[in-house]
C-alpha cells in the first residue's frame, strides 16, 4: 500500500495494512469504526481486512479496530495538532497530503447551535484520492462552442467520479488542448478536494493557468475570484445551497463560464432541486455531463445540451 | 618547590570544582531564560499563525539556544516522519537530548515532559492555557534558580577555597 496512505494510521493499524496486497489504483476507502472490523472498499466492493493482511467477505474474520487505535490514528492524521485543523474537523473532514480526505465522526461539541469540534472520535473514513490524468480528454471537445468555453454541470451520485473528471477538465482547460489554447481558471476549492492544497500548494495538477482559493466558502469564494483573478472559467465542486446558486448566477452574468458538479442521477432530479434546479430551468448550463457506472466510477458518460438532449455518450 | 606546586594545584582544583557548581547554576538559569524566550515564540506560532506542532517546533527551535534547539528539532523531525507514535512517547524519548546537554534539574525536565505530553490536544484555548501554565512554571523555576545563585555563588566559592586550604593543612 502507498506510503502516504499508510502514514495516516497508528503503528498497530499500519502494521496490518502494510501486509495487505491491494492495487492502490483500485483502493477507494478505508473505514475504521470502534469495536468493528476494518473495511476496505476496493473497486467498488467492500472487504474485511484479516490480521494477516488478506481480504475476506466474512465480517467475523475481519480484524477489529479499538477506540484507542482510532484516536491514535486521528492524532497522527491531525499531525498531533487538533487545534490547527479545528475548522475542518468541525465540518467533519480533514484533507491530508496526497489529497486524500478523511471523514471524522464522534461526539460533536456544539456551541451556539453550531458544531465546534469533535470528541471521542470513533469513526474514520479515509477516501483515497485518485488523479486520473487524461480521463477528461474524451469529453473536453464538447465543452466548447465557437472557441467559447461552455458552462457545464457534471452530475453523478456520490463516489461516481465527478470530482476526478472535473479535476482533469480543469487541467485541460487551463493548459489548453487540441480544441483551443488554455484559459484562466479560478478554482474555489472549499473542501480541498479538487486541488488538495497542502501549505497552499496544489497536490494535484490543475494546469498552468489555474488559481486556487482553498478552504473558502463557495459563494464568498466565487465573488472573491471574480473580483481579484479575472477568470474566464470558474470551477466549483458540489454546488447546491441557495447562496452557491446565487454566486454561480453572478459569475455567469460576469461572462465567466462555470464548471460545477452536483450530486444526482439525472438532469430531471437536479431540475427538481430547489436551488440548483432554478439554474437548470433558466438554462444557465450549456452542457451536462452525467456519470454512471457501478463497477468503475465514471465508466459511462452522457453529454446533454441545455435542453437535455443527448449529444453523445461514451 | 614541588610540594608548593602540589598545594597550589589542590587549591586550584577545589576552586575549579566550586566554580563548576556555580557554572551549572548559571547555565541552568540561562537555559530557563532561553526556554521562556522560546515559549513566547512558540506561543505566537501556535496561537497567531495556527501552525501545526511540527511547524511551530521547527520554526521556533532557534530561539531556544544551542542546548535546547536540537531537542525541539528532533521532536519536529520525528513528527514529520509520521511514525505512528504518540506525541508523549516521541517527546519523552527525545527529551534525552535535554537530559544530556542541559543543566536542568530532574523536576524541570519532568515539567517540560508534562508540557509536551499535553500539547496538540483539543482547541487553541487549551493550547494557550497549557502554554501559560508552563510559562508560569518556568518563571517560578527561574526565580528559584536566581535566588539560589545569589545565595550559593559566594558560598560555593568560599567552600572551594576553604576545602582546598583544609586539604593543604591536613597534608602539611
Q: Largest sheet of chain B, described in full?
A: none
Largest interface: A-B, 19 and 21 residues
- Work out the helicity level of chain B: over 70%
CATH superfamily of the largest domain in chain A: P-loop containing nucleotide triphosphate hydrolases
Order of helices and strands of chain A: HHEEEEEEHHEEEHEEEHEEHEHEHHEEE
Tell me the number of strands of chain A: 19
**Alpha-beta content class of chain B:** mainly alpha
List strands and helices in order, with pairings.
The complex is a heterodimer of chains A (314) and B (172).
Chain A: H1 3-6, H2 11-19, E1 27-33, E2 36-37, E3 39-42, E4 45-49, E5 55-56, E6 64-65, H3 67-77, H4 86-91, E7 93-95, E8 101-111, E9 114-127, H5 137-140, E10 144-145, E11 148-149, E12 152-156, H6 162-175, E13 185-189, E14 210-214, H7 218-229, E15 233-236, H8 242-253, E16 257-263, H9 267-272, H10 276-282, E17 287-292, E18 300-305, E19 310-313
Parallel strand pairs in A: 12-16, 12-17, 13-14, 13-15, 15-16
Antiparallel strand pairs in A: 1-3, 1-9, 2-6, 3-4, 4-5, 7-8, 8-9, 10-11, 17-18, 18-19
Helix pairs in contact in A: 7-8
Chain B: H1 2-47, H2 53-60, H3 65-81, H4 87-94, H5 96-101, H6 106-117, H7 124-171
Helix pairs in contact in B: 1-2, 1-7, 2-3, 3-4, 4-6, 6-7
